[in-house]
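Fold these two proteins, one after the other.
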Amino acid sequence: MSNLTDISYVKAVLSKNGFSFSKALGQNFLINPSVCPKMAELCGCNDNIGVIEIGPGAGVLTNELAKKAYKVVAIELDKRLLPVLEETLAEHDNVKVINADAMKLDIRKLITEEFNGHQVVICANLPYYITSPIIMRLLEERLPVESLTVMVQKEAAERICAEPGTRESGAISAAVNYYSHPELLFKVSKGSFLPAPKVDSAVIKLNILKKPPVATDDEKLFFRVVKAAFSQRRKTVLNSLSSGLSLPKAYVSEVLENAGIKQTARAEELKMQEFAAITNILKNNRAE
C-alpha cells in the first residue's frame, strides 16, 4: 500500500514519471498525513455518496476519499499526472480520473453519467489562481451536489466565509452566501505541502441551499449591484453604485433612501437583504 504522505515516496513516483511542478498550474501537493483524512471525513462522503475531486495532484486526497466514497471522479488538467495517478491509486477500483479542464467540462453531464443517481459532493484542494472562478462556476450552475469542501488560501477562505455586513466581507462573500451556507472548517499550514507555498491555507465547506436566503426580482442584476458596490471599497455605496452601474448619483441616492440605507454606508456594511432591496427597487423602476 503506497504512503502518499511520505515525501520520499511521492518524490520518487514523480521523478520516475518525469514530473516537475508547474507554477503556472499552482501545483502544491499535500504531504501532511492528517489533512486529507480530515477533509474526507468532513466533506460527508460515505459508501452511498459520490465525490468529484478537482485537481487530484499525486492522489493524496483522492486516496482518502476512495476509502469512504461510493465512487470518486477526479478531474485533472495536467496530462503528465495521469501515469502518476495510475500508480498511486492502483489499489482503488472506485476511482476514475478524467483529463479535462474543470472550468470547461460539462460537470452536470458528468454527474448524470458517472454516479448512477447517488448523492454527490465536491471535495478538492484548489489551486489558488482559480479559487474564485471555479467556486463561482460550481455554484452558479446549480449543480445537483450537496456541498463543496475545498482547500483555498487562508485569506480567501476568510473572505469567502465572511458574513455580509462585516468588515471582512467582499463581493465573493455575498455571492457565496446567496447560494450556500459557508463554514471555515480548519486551517492548514504552508509546511503541509510539497513544494511549500508562501501562505497558509484553510479548508472551507459550502453547504448548498435549496433556495437563496433573499428574494430578488432579477438575479443577474443582484450580482451586478454586489460587484459594483464592492468595486471601490474605500468609497461609499452611493459613489460605487453610481460609478459601477453608470447611474446618476441623485438617482442612486433616492434608491438608497427608499431601501432604508444610509448615504454614507460602505459596501461591507450592507447585508444580503439590503443588496436585494437595492436590486428590487432598480428592477421595479426599470419596469415603470
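Now the second one:
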Amino acid sequence: MRRNIIVILTLLLTCGLSACKPGANRGENMEKETRLKIETTAGDIVVKLYNETPKHRDNFIKLAKEGVYDGTLFHRVIKDFMIQAGDPQSKSASKGKSLGAGDVGYTIPAEFVYPQYFHKRGALAAARQGDNVNPEKASSGCQFYIVTGKVYNNGSLANMEEQINQMRLQSVFNALAQKHLKDIYKMRRAGDEDGLMKLQDELIAEAEKEMAGKTRFQFTPEQQQAYTTLGGAPHLDGEYTVFGEVVEGMDVVDKIQRVKTDRNDRPEENVVISKVTVLED
C-alpha cells in the first residue's frame, strides 16, 4: 500500500480526472427454470437459466427465439478459463478476423446474485465492456461465455482474497486522492515531496479507516468447495453477471476449449452455433 507517492501521482496525472483505461443456498424457489439447447458443430450443450436474473434470462430466450445466435461462432476460446460466443458479426467473419466487438444495440443492467451464483466450472455468464467505459458493469446484449476454469487450492484462494481486499483498499485510496488533485499538482510544481508524503500518509489512514467499517471479502464455503474440486474462475466473481449454468454437454464445452486458436484466441477452425432452442418439458 505504501508505494512511492510519485508512481501513484504520475498515474493520476496521466489519467486526469477520469478513470484510467485498462448455486447453493437458493432457498425455496419453486418457479420452473428455463432450459435451452445450444447446438454446435462440436456437439450439443444444454443450459438452464436462473429466475433470479430475469432480465438476462428473458433476453437470452428472446434472442434464441429470434435466431440471433444461429450461425454465430465461439469466437474467443481460452483453455482453463472460458469459451465465449454471441457476436453477431461472427456470422460472416472471414478466417482470422478479430471478433468480439459486435452487439445488438443495447446492454442489460447488471444482475449480480452474489455469492449465490458465482463463476464455478460450467457457469453461464454475460460478457461486457471494461470498467473504464462501463462503470455500472452492464452486460452485453448478446455475448456470453461458459466457464471452464481450473482447480485452486485453499492457499491460492486465501492469496486471492488478500489481493482483492488490497485492491479494494487501493481503490478507496485512489478515489480520495482524486479529490486532492489540485493540492497534488500544486505540491508537485513546488517540488514539495515532504508535503506529498504527508498527504499520502493521511490518505492511507483515511482509506484504512473507511475500509475498517466494511466487511472484508471472503469466499463462502460453497465457493471454497466448488473452486477446490470442480474449479472455475473466482477472479471474475462480482464483476460479471452469472445467469445460468450448463446441465448437459460439459464434455462438449471441454472439447471446444481444447481447440487450436490464433493470437486473438479465435479458433483456427470455426466452432459454429447452428441453433439455440428453448426446451419444453
